[in-house]
Amino acid sequence: MRHEAERHLWQRWPGRNFFLCDGRTMTGPTLTGFYFTFGLCLLTITLFNVYSAPFLWDEVSPSIPIICGYFTLMALVFLLRTTFSDPGIIPRAGTQEADLVLPLTSEEKRPRIREVKINGQTQLLKFCETCCIYRPPRASHCRICNNCVEGFDHHCPWVSNCVGKRNYRFFIMFVFHFIMSTMALFLCTLVHLIRSTRASGGTVFDTIKEAPGTIVVLIICFLAFLTVIGLPCFHSHLISEGITTNEFIKRSYVVGRSPFTRGSFSANLAALLCGPRPSSILRLRKPVFDDHYIELEPESDYSDDGVA
Question: Has 131 been annotated as catalytic?
């Protein structure tokens, strides 16, 4: 029975997501990792612009600070797109839909797995006890956001959101521009120190004393580069195989290739970056009543196949 006031779906959403702009955008349950990543990028480019960019602009070439600023700006843009977008969340079954799949008695059991054929390979559709749906192929229930996500890759704490079918391309572009930004800032700051030291006739320590922010930029960029340099290599392998991080960890295709691959790295990459972006199937601003969702406790604190 509908017994309480009508509200928007995002206000009644049973997952752990955080909503902004009256449900027009969403992210993960906490923004701590995003604040750290965004702040680190902002701090690095600010120190570079204060201490190194003026010297490089006048003494070397104006194009150098512009290139560094471009890569950092694009990294921030794609970070925002990755964090504040629907990764491909699959809506849970509402009260009426759940009545069709929930058992009538405690003795009745629904099949937990159904099988479908995709490109000649058998794919398993697992039933999610929390969302009361059969998950489509490649979908998984994120244990952090408490949602089923289509094309689930992983939950990234540094962007504070799941990475899935709808924002994976933004994540890849963020990683690429972030690495290019750290490399450019590190090398250009190094050039500033060397050229400035030669021009002054002193030592590199004298130059650092005059521009203390340069050593901070070098340290941050060096550590950040070491931290993320493995990501493009790993995800290049995933793209070439046509699989996700979750499928790689679960060893979903130990025998045979993924039925979702297009046959080559270039074809998979072109489809990822240039293909149409899937539309969101969430209607977060549609009106619902407070009994729209049934309250179900997860089977355990962690989902059966979520990956963090």
Answer: no
